[in-house]
Structure formats: structure tokens, C-alpha cells
Design brief:
11-stranded mixed β-sheet, about 210 residues, alpha/beta, 7 helices, about 30% helix
């Protein structure tokens, strides 16, 4: 099913259909502020495996988790340094993914995470509306592994097809540039992927952050 988010009634029905699909362990494609994402219930191992299978990706590449509010970070992560709290307070919602040590009490299986979790709060009202209904979602770029990330719902449909239950059509994504991924789980923070937020912005909060290699 595909729903046009520019039509109010269809958008409302789309959010309900997406929530229902996710609760059933199915996949949903949604617009974000970077590229289109494919989402699964983060707390359903079967749903997360469906996501990895749809992308042709192994458990060695676990998906990030999208959240609807900055305060949710504390429910998912531990040992969050003060500089990182300042960073997400200013840059979220936005194209910054942070990797932290995960809460030991979390009962999920995202893949081979090595007790870490990658978290982002997207700056897209449609994604945030869905996240407020569902809670944290495992979300990866909506594409087959090795192909460019989808910037339109049609591109996502062409790659993922019937493996996805609900498509939320938000029109072309605003940037198409992926999020910057910052690993803050170890002793030395470093950029794993240079994306929409440049290193000099991150250095405003911690000038020891190492650039992507």
C-alpha cells in the first residue's frame, strides 16, 4: 500500500496503516530529512531480520534506531558524555547519527552491535509523527545493498517492492545526503561516515573527534 502524505486524509490513514504493519512485524518505507528509510519494529528480532533480508544485508551491518524525542536517548544508551548531550541538544532533530554503549536491559536483537546502538532523531515531521506513535524504530536507508539510497518513494518501491507492506510518499527528499555517523562508544570519538554535518561543526563540541578514515 502507498499513501500520499501531501493529502491530509491519506496521510492520516497512512500513519495508521504503517503503525499496524509495524506492530505485525512488517516493513514500512518512510521519508526522512536525508533519504527514504525502511523501518521495522526495533524490538522484534523477526522484523529486524526481515529488514536485513529485504536489503540483502547481513547481521554484521545492524540498522540504526530512529527516535522521536531527544530524551529517548537515555532509554537506549549509557555513559553519554556531557559534550555529546550538548551536541544532540543542538543538532537534533537532524542528520546526525550517534553510536553509544547500549542499555544492558534492552531486549532486542539488531544484529552484531557489540553492545552499542546507533541513534538518530530525524528532522522530518512525517517520520516524527510515526515515531511518536510507535516508539523507536530500526531504520536503514531504503535501498538494496550496493545501490544508491532512495530519494523518492518510487525508487524505494523499485528496489524493495512487495517486501515492504506500507509506503509513505513524502515526495523527493530534501537533501539526499546521508547523516554523519559519529562513534562515541569508545575512548576516542571518531566519524565513521562523513555526511550532512561536517567535522568542523562536531569539533565545536569536542575538538578531539577524529575524522573519517
Amino acid at each position: 500500500m502507498k499513501f500520499d502524505c501531501s493529502v491530509d486524509e491519506e496521510y492520516s490513514r497512512g500513519l495508521l496503516a504503517a503503525q499496524a504493519a509495524l506492530e505485525e512485524g512488517k516493513l514500512v518505507v518512510l521519508p526522512t530529512d536525508t533519504v527514504y528509510g525502511v523501518a521495522a519494529d526495533a524490538f522484534s528480532p523477526r522484523a529486524v531480520q526481515n529488514l536485513l533480508d529485504a536489503k540483502g544485508r547481513g547481521r554484521d551491518m545492524p540498522p540504526p534506531v530512529l527516535i522521536g524525542a531527544p530524551t529517548t536517548l537515555d532509554a537506549l544508551a549509557i555513559n553519554i558524555p556531557a559534550w555529546l548531550r550538548s551536541m544532540v541538544a543542538e543538532l537534533w532533530p537532524g542528520p546526525l547519527t550517534v553510536i553509544c554503549q547500549q542499555q544492558a536491559s534492552l531486549t532486542w536483537d539488531l544484529g552484531e552491535t557489540h553492545n552499542t546502538v546507533a541513534v538518530r532523531m530525524p528532522n522530518d515531521p512525517r517520520a516524527l509523527a510515526l515515531l511518536k506513535q510507535t516508539g523507536p524504530l530500526a531504520v536503514s536507508s531504503a535501498n538494496s545493498t550496493g545501490r544508491p539510497a532512495a530519494q523518492t518513494v518510487e525508487e524505494a518501491q523499485e528496489m524493495l517492492g512487495p517486501r515492504v507492506a506500507v509506503y509513505l510518499d513524502g515526495g523527493p527528499t530534501a537533501s539526499g545526503t546521508p547523516s554523519t555517523i559519529l562513534d562515541a562508544a569508545g575512548s576516542t570519538p571518531r566519524v565513521l561516515r562523513q555526511g550532512a554535518i561536517p567535522l568542523e561543526v562536531l569539533h565545536r563540541f569536542n575538538n578531539t573527534i577524529e575524522p573519517a578514515s
